[in-house]
Amino acid sequence: MTKTVTSLFHSDHHANTAANHLKQAGIPADDIDIWTTPHNLAPLLEDLGVSRADAYAYAEGVIRGGSVVIVKCDASRVDEVVGILDREGVLDLDEQQVAWRSEGWEGTEAAEQAGDLIESPERTQTRADADRVVEITHGRIRIQPRKAEHPAQE
């Protein structure tokens, strides 16, 4: 089964370093995306199975100068990918949201009202969210089953 691994980095430099290490580990470049602008990022992440709350939090991280790394990989490589991302200084998305809220950020309020849940950042969890299962890894990295790509219909 293919998974989508998403993470937030402090800067483009850190994200590119992580991507280079992923490539050195054998992850194809076509399976690694780095986002440095928020335009259309949240809807893309939602399409990949990321919860609305997390998708808008990632977009906020990019607005604040961070970069999002999205990796498509086989389930058997998830631990390796997470290890590489962790070594390169991935930010804790849950901690970032707490800090942003203390500054008055309300980006997840609409998502919460739409029914998405914000979970405790201190546990690894799995939650059902509509038709998707989201695995949360200690608040830092999100892992989702990759949605099957459907061929375009004519």
Write the layout of secondary structure elements.
Elements lengths: L1 E8 L2 H13 L7 E4 L5 H7 L4 H12 L3 E8 L3 H10 L5 H10 L6 H5 L11 E5 L2 E6 L3 E5 L9
Antiparallel strand pairs: 1-3, 1-6, 2-3, 4-5, 5-6
Helix pairs in contact: 1-4, 2-3
Query: Which structural class is indicated by helix and strand composition?
Result: alpha+beta
Q: Biggest β-sheet: count, sense, barrel?
A: 6 strands, antiparallel
Order of helices and strands: EHEHHEHHHEEE
With strands numbered from the N-terminus, the spatial order across the biggest sheet is: 2-3-1-6-5-4
What's the CATH topology label?
A: Alpha-Beta Plaits
Output mean pLDDT: 81
User: How many beta-strand runs?
Assistant: 6
| Global outline | globular
**Which CATH-level-2 architecture?**
2-Layer Sandwich
* Helix segment tally: 6
Number of domains: 1
Radius of gyration: 15 Å
- Please report the distance between the alpha carbons of the first and last residues: 28 Å
CATH class: Alpha Beta
Q: How big a fraction of the residues is strand?
A: 15-25%
Summarize the structure.
The protein is α+β, with helices and mostly antiparallel strands and 154 residues long. The chain has helices spanning 12-24, 41-47, 52-63, 78-87, 93-102, 109-113, and strands at residues 2-9, 32-35, 67-74, 125-129, 132-137, 141-145.
Pick out its properties.
six-stranded antiparallel sheet; globular; 6 helices; 154 residues; disordered C terminus; Alpha-Beta Plaits; alpha+beta
